[in-house]
Amino acid sequence: MALDFLAIVSYGTYPTVGVTAAQRAGFAASNGLLGDAPTVSLTNNIAGSPLYIITTSVISGSFSIKGIWWVSSEVLSMDIVTNDFMSIFDSSGFPVASKQAKANGDGLELNFKKPLIVNGIIVNNLDGGILYIFV
Known about the structure:
It is a single chain. By secondary structure, the protein is mainly beta. It has one domain: Jelly Rolls, CATH 2.60.120. Helices cover 7% and strands 41% of the residues. Strands 1, 2, 3, 4, 5, 6 and 7 form a 7-stranded antiparallel β-sheet that branches. It is globular and about 30 Å long. Residues 1-17 and 34-38 have low confidence and may be disordered.
């Protein structure tokens, strides 16, 4: 069974479809998800915040996660489509977040009320879209 979101989070307050990078950056700033404006790139960027992930990844270190966004990108043709799957675990295999898209553009936007402390981040499924992890 996949986790749609953990009980300790506040679910995102705007839809994924049609939201611009500037709107996301504004939402992040207004909700305490400090970090750079969301990146648009064809490679992973795990330096800074947010972590920007487009392929499965294993990232070492201790992290204080403030938010997790799985979003479509029309700019990069990396849309989330029906049945795409995303999952994140910590280094010990504890599930952090996962979701299977029920429709095109059905991403995930989690904003943690208290940061989730994890040792290592493993993204072992990322069928489509872009994953932002705010640390």
